[in-house]
Amino acid sequence: xxxxxxxxxxxxxxxxxxxxxxxxxxxxxxxxxxxxxxxxxxxxxxxxxxxxxxxxxxxxxxxxxxxxxxxxxxxxxxxxxxxxxxxxxxxxxxxxxxxxxxxxxxxxxxxxxxxxxxxxxxxxxxxxxxxxxxxxxxxxxxxxxxxxxxxxxxxxxxxxxxxxxxxxxxxxxxxxxxxxxxxxxxxxxxxxxxxxxxxxxxxxxxxxxxxxxxxxxxxxxxxxxxxxxxxxxxxxxxxxxxxxxxxxxxxxxxxxxxxxxxxxxxxxxxxxxxxxxxxxxxxxxxxxxxxxxxxxxxxxxxxxxxxxxxxxxxxxxxxxxxxxxxxxxxxxxxxxxxxxxxxxxxxxxxxxxxxxxxxxxxxxxxxxxxxxxxxxxxxxxxxxxxxxxxxxxxxxxxxxxxxxxxx
Length: 407
Prior knowledge:
The chain is of the alpha+beta class. It has helices at about 1-15, 20-25, 25-60, 75-80, 90-95, 150-155, 165-170, 210-220, 235-250, 265-310, 310-320, 325-360, 370-395, 400-405; strands at about 65, 100-115, 120-130, 145, 160, 180, 185-190, 200, 200-205, 205-210, 225-230, 265. Helix 1 (about 1-15) packs across helix 12 (about 325-360), helix 3 (about 25-60) runs antiparallel to helix 13 and helix 10 (about 265-310) packs across helix 12. It is elongated, with a radius of gyration of 32 Å. About 35% of the residues are buried.
């Protein structure tokens, strides 16, 4: 243990004594590990943000029926662009057939102006919902109350507004029971949703929710709806999607073998596509890391060969005094690993710094993962061991008499 400690101290002293040379030696390791830390932190942060956004929008076990499904290329778009509109009749068809479905909410969205007295917001998302919206956790009221099913069914001019809309229109005042104008039409505020914050620089609090019937009067009924479907149990989510698909195919008279003329989107399918994209980034990362580690390892090997050459007399003296081959190899390998790991630690620090700077200057979130830090240390230790083997073996096989003759 004392020999290991002495080898580590000797390696650190050498690094400190030759700062510039050590920095240039470790450059490959620093680039590789900082790349790992930065990219993993950004991918992890983005994955978490996207997952939260999708789950909050679609629900963990819910799914949506819409006019077009997920399009990954132009052919998919061309095939789906002529799909018929999704209507309330489609919702009724699913309700009749799908026994595993607990609730179906019809929803439509657009953007318009919202105003209160002299205050006006140009583009606010307007969501028209059916009375089943209370069954979904995506809606809440921190102040006041939710719209009642009776108000929604009878198309009352009431609205639940987002925290951002309340803050900007009422400037900290009480918005409850006040009348705001949505597309020029007065609506009474009955509740304010709790603050959701922003995702990727986009506010999640700039919205108003109104009864679907009122929405269709304002913006027209010739607009495709989005049907949010909630299964009776989370374990029945896949079965509920299959039942909904069969119900719509039968109701629309589609023949066996014909493609669906509607889309069913679940949170897991959206996340799967997103994770495929991030997997491509991971593959690119492997290439960058591999090349950087190869360069860094070769440089470390050259430096250690030079160190062995510089310390030939010292190694010869140690062997003459009884040091064994494994002692010499252990010393050189320890120094090589220590040198490489120092580069990994610097890379970890730089990677964490880069990811923090990117996250603070852009809407892209980041999260430094402990496993990526451990991976950086392990990889650099392995590089030091692999590329330090040849110099260590050369040092161990030196003839002590010849070594002592060296000047």
